[in-house]
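FORM 12-B: Structure-to-Sequence Request
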């Protein structure tokens, strides 16, 4: 294995000491038994005490992703280089993480503190001076009056016990699962079926005074209506007696001075992204790093011997308008909310600032291309003459979508410019791919954070985790706005969740989304490979004639999700399902011809998205030939009835078709279309592109957000392919 350069750039103004960067790193295929020999060295070639473990394998059992936790010391504004490399034997380091597993829970100790997780849900955090936390981990979910249908309301939290997620000598992850119980409708007894699932994962490091955590709640309560409102949803930790607030960040909605506790009429202290307490065991701080993205109603609260974070006081009806809508009260059945935070023990001010301003590891774009993490897939990464074009599109999305309250619905498919309104939610499971690819190509930490926010939005809001009715599904459009439960195979896209789950180390989420793909493969792929669609809106469940074959060729992009699941698990069942749908495509082309089967160039972007991974993994010439024929048909028979809408996705597909078949007509055709698309960029709002409504009256000025996302994601792929082919994109002909 060749050494991999890892760059750390401190450009957020924090002096960092014992700061942990935890991140997934894609690698070339590596046998699992070789991972123990991997080390990270500093600029002097000295090994750094890093936790390195397998984050993901491919269908052949080879390691393709590592999760590393790298401790660094770096001053504000500095830059350091590290290298991931193979060693003859793993070095030994001082200060290993002490770990004890016992029937009643887990005990861990590093050089900063000790922490004990005692079943079913107690936690004790201790230093040599005394205790900083002591008691039961808690959640508080409280419904408002609108949710009290038949007395259905959440009542109390019931922890289910701790599980070991992962253990190395320098990092341990512990998961606490729990249920938030509810009354039986129209009675005052506990109903085991009505619940919220409420879980939290803790990560403890050998080389840091920080405990990081992420927590999530999922609504499984349903009676008469499929949603409810929560006027509080908090994750909380128990403080020992005599703990007092020392300082905290000001919430914008509170009328108090910075670093002074905010006290409401109930004597509760509320804060923004951090609070610091004095406890018998010393200084303890809690952070809420994405607080500023969440809108009014989010915060940290210190009250009644507990420190908590989440939806402290959501407004009665959080809105959708503007860039930062209020934190949202309404929870639909099967929806989640996910949050992150950290606890800092006996820390410095610099360490608190660093934890609130995370920085990623930066790998070269060339490396990401080599290992297949970028769609350039081994080719040189370049923006060609379009660097400014891509940057403008990315900055617009960062300002209006990729940096908004993505967890709570401010993610628009189109936008009405005249009225400053979002038209409908995009709800694409691949939404996180745009900022993710832009981070890989540029190393800009803002897009690393944006990819995480988009990933959480997709997981929390779009992914309905129900097991009754018609089962789990990815919502289609307008779900948050008016509860339109429309879903079908074309929207069961999991690429954004799969890719980000590796970068951010979320195996739990990855396993859950693969469960969705298996369900859809079992229930919505016919024996002949045709995709099937449910009737109605899902409320009647799987009874009688509840589904039928759909002849829409665009539905075949579900192959993409099947292939993701196959690569992640190695389960041939997913591959066989993908091939059956691929064979249905081949028969459709043969029986109907390209004009009738492809329908239009919007449909072909879905067909090709489905085929591309199937072609790469099977190398079956039948699928590759079909892919190239569809690409050529698309560039020669454009039917883009919505203006530039959807064209930019073909920048990738046409480039890949050219690489496979060498037909320059495809590449020259997509270049003509690219120039046409880019010529439509708005002068009034740079970085945006018009969406032409065919039958809109009166005429409306809309922006198509998909264009921005696809230009950021795939225009660089076209630039790379043109350079390889020796074609100058700035030439007139």
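FORM 12-B RESPONSE
SEQUENCE OUT:
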């Amino acid at each position: 294995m060749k050494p991999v350069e890892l760059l750390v750039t401190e450009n957020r103004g924090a002096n960092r000491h014992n700061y942990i960067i935890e991140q997934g790193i894609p690698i070339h295929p590596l046998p699992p038994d070789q991972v123990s020999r991997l080390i990270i060295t500093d600029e002097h070639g000295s090994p750094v005490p890093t936790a390195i473990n397998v984050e993901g394998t491919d269908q052949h059992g080879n390691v393709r992703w590592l999760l590393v936790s790298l401790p660094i010391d770096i001053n504000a504004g500095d830059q350091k280089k590290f290298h991931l490399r193979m060693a003859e034997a793993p070095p030994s380091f001082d200060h290993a993480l002490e770990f004890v597993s016992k029937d009643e829970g887990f005990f861990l100790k590093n050089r900063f503190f000790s922490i004990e997780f005692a079943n079913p849900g107690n936690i004790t955090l201790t230093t040599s001076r005394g205790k900083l936390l002591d008691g039961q981990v808690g959640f508080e979910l409280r419904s408002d009056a609108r949710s009290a249908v038949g007395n259905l309301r959440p009542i109390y939290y019931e922890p289910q016990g701790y599980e070991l997620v992962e253990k190395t000598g320098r990092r341990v992850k512990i998961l606490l699962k729990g249920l938030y119980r509810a009354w039986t409708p129209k009675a005052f007894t506990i109903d085991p079926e009505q619940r919220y699932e409420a879980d939290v994962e803790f990560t403890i490091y050998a080389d840091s005074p920080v405990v990081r955590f992420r927590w999530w709640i999922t609504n499984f309560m349903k009676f008469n209506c499929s949603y409810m409102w929560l006027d509080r949803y908090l994750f909380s930790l128990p403080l020992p007696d005599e703990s007092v607030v020392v300082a905290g960040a000001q919430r914008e909605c509170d009328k108090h001075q910075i670093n002074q506790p905010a006290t409401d009429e109930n004597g509760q202290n509320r804060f923004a992204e951090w609070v610091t307490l004095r406890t018998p065991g010393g200084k303890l701080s809690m952070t809420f790093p994405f607080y500023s993205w969440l809108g009014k109603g989010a915060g940290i609260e210190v009250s009644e011997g507990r420190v908590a974070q989440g939806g402290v006081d959501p407004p009665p009806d959080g809105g959708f308008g503007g860039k930062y809508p209020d934190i949202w009260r309404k929870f639909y059945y099967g929806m989640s909310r996910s949050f992150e935070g950290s606890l800092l023990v006996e820390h410095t001010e610099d360490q608190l600032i660093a934890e609130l301003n995370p920085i990623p590891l930066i790998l070269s774009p060339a490396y990401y291309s080599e290992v297949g993490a970028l769609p350039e897939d081994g080719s040189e990464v370049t923006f060609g003459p379009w660097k400014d074009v891509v940057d403008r599109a990315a900055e617009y999305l960062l300002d209006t979508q990729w940096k908004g309250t993505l967890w709570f619905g401010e993610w628009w498919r189109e936008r009405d410019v005249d009225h400053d309104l979002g038209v409908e939610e995009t709800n694409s499971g691949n939404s996180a791919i745009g900022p993710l690819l832009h981070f890989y190509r540029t190393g800009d930490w803002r897009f690393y954070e944006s990819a995480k926010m988009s990933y959480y939005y997709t997981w929390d809001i779009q992914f309905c985790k129900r097991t009754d009715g018609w089962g789990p599904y990815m919502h289609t459009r307008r779900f948050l706005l008016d509860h339109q439960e429309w879903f079908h195979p074309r929207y069961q896209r999991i690429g954004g969740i799969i890719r980000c789950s590796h970068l951010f180390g979320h195996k739990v989420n990855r396993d859950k989304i693969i469960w969705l793909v298996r369900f859809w493969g079992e229930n919505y792929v016919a024996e002949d490979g045709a995709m099937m669609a449910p009737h109605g809106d899902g409320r009647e469940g799987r009874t009688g004639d509840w589904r039928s074959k759909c002849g829409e060729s665009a539905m075949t992009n579900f192959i993409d999700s099947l292939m993701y699941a196959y690569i992640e698990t190695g389960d041939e069942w997913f591959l066989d399902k993908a091939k059956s749908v691929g064979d249905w495509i081949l028969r459709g082309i043969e029986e109907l011809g390209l004009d009738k089967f492809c329908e239009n160039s919007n449909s072909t972007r879905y067909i090709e998205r489905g085929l591309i991974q199937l072609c790469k993994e099977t190398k079956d010439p039948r699928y590759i030939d079909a892919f190239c024929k569809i690409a050529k048909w698309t560039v020669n028979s454009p039917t883009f009835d919505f203006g530039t809408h959807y064209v930019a996705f073909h920048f990738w597909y046409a480039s890949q078709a050219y690489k496979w078949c060498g037909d320059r007509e495809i590449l020259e055709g997509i270049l003509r279309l690219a120039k046409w698309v880019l010529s439509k960029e708005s002068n009034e709002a740079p970085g945006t592109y018009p969406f032409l409504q065919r039958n809109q009256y009166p005429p409306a000025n809309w922006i198509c957000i998909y264009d921005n996302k696809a230009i950021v994601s795939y225009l660089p792929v076209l630039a790379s392919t043109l350079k390889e082919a020796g074609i100058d994109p700035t030439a007139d002909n």
